[in-house]
Amino acid sequence: MDTAVDMKALGEKIEKSSAFIDDIYDELGKVIVGQRYMIDRLLIGLLSDGHVLLEGVPGLAKTLTVSSLSQVINTRFQRIQFTPDLLPADLIGTLIYNQKEGEFTVKKGPIFSNIILADEINRSPAKVQSALLEAMQEKQVTIGDSTFKLEKPFLVLATQNPVEQEGTYPLPEAQSDRFMLKLKVGYPSKPEELEIMKRMAKTGDKPQLDSVTDAKTILKAREVVNEIYMDEKVENYIVDLVFATRSPENYRLEELKDLISFGGSPRASINLNLAARARAFMEHRAYVTPEDVRFIAMDVLRHRIIPTFEAEAEDITTEEIISKILSTVPVP
């Protein structure tokens, strides 16, 4: 009986603390046409303190969506264009010698912000990528002898351009694993494209966005997300999905055995759990359903499954492998 009462109280708490989510959608709708898939996942990353890797051709409003989200939640935003000549100091900052004082002073880099858009992360060398990934992981930066904590919330949204791979530095698998989600952003539908054209084919000012929440509310929401109830059956379902990427033969998926070099790491299980809770919060629910897990599974697992040469030779994508797993592993 107590559990029922607790769930009711938790449900009311979630309802109240997640009200701002609908306001975010409404406000972003003033500027962004469609792209619900991308907005959903960006909010999941924001609520579960997970970084997001976006892949898509130029012109799909990735930068506009991220900068608009930052405006709507009233946080500091920095866009960093990654280029082959970028240095780690351009990102995190450096020590500058002050001749007048006769000492070094710290000049902080653009990483000291709440939302970082790392544009075309695969255009910069490994040193710059690793400096960014260290900041993502440790939530702190070392300049000279001093260590500085990064502001909360701190979220990195990195974009990759799938075309023009010449002269780029693809993220190694071990590093892309640091991203909670990897999104594949597609083209808009025909009606959406028509609406985009009508809105954007005008000179002059674009619609102004209002702030509907703030960093403090986001941090409080993260605490509430941790309270969302997840049944043991759903937890086991998450573990089964991840284990099916490692030992598919144990899940009646013998045909995948020769197609997967490496399955998902324990980060896959952790992130599926966190992302599913965030999805339940966005739906104003106090409990996680298997559907929440399935909703986000593709984006959590996409960059964590490494296909074999055989899979690549047969043109079998990781998306097809994940779809097969999702359709075979029993849903509780």
Tell me what you see in this structure.
The protein has 14 helices and eleven strands. α1 packs antiparallel against α9 (215-227), α11 (266-282) crosses α12 and α12 (290-301) runs antiparallel to α14 (318-328). By secondary structure, it is α/β, with parallel strands linked by helices. It is 47% helix and 15% strand. Strands 2-5-8-1-9 form a five-stranded parallel sheet.
How widely separated are the two ends? 24 Å
- Under CATH, the topology of the largest domain can be stated as Rossmann fold
Shape: globular
According to DSSP, the number of beta strands is 11
**Average residue pLDDT:** 84
Number of domains: 2
CATH class assignment of the largest domain: Alpha Beta
Radius of gyration: 21 Å
Count of individual helical segments: 14
Low-confidence runs = none
Short structural summary:
This protein is α/β, with parallel strands linked by helices and about 325 residues long. About 45% of the residues lie in helices and about 15% in strands.
Top keywords for this entry?
alpha/beta, 5-stranded parallel β-sheet, two-stranded antiparallel sheet, 47% helix
Map the helices and strands.
Elements: H1 2-17, H2 19-28, H3 36-47, E1 52-55, H4 62-72, E2 77-81, H5 88-92, E3 93-98, E4 103-108, E5 115-119, H6 126-138, E6 140-143, E7 146-149, E8 155-160, H7 173-176, E9 181-184, H8 190-200, H9 215-227, H10 232-246, E10 260-262, H11 266-282, H12 290-301, E11 306-307, H13 309-313, H14 318-328
Parallel strand pairs: 1-8, 1-9, 2-5, 5-8
Antiparallel strand pairs: 3-4, 6-7, 10-11
